[in-house]
Description:
By secondary structure, the chain is of the alpha+beta class. The chain has one helix at about 15-30; strands at about 5-15, 30-40, 45-50. The protein has a domain at about 5-55. Strands 1-3-2 form a three-stranded antiparallel sheet, with helices on one face. A hairpin with a 4-residue loop joins strand 2 (about 30-40) and strand 3 (about 45-50). The N and C termini lie far apart (about 55 Å).
Amino acid sequence: xxxxxxxxxxxxxxxxxxxxxxxxxxxxxxxxxxxxxxxxxxxxxxxxxxxxxxxxxxxxxxxxxxxxxxxxxxxxxxxxxxxxxxxxx
Length: 89
């Protein structure tokens, strides 16, 4: 059985709560087991993120991607107006 790891951040204001949770999940990089949010006083909270290690066979691996000859990753302009896709003018 693997041991769970946890990390606690204290005194997080309410408006920064989503950022604190996202930062904790991003820093660990493993499978998230539990996220606990407890109110301390006024509008402040303690955030605890518990994780488990990802099994070796499911862990992310570095892959080399090869592109066909002549395919470049430069910018491509749209036929209408020369704007990039996804940009709203």
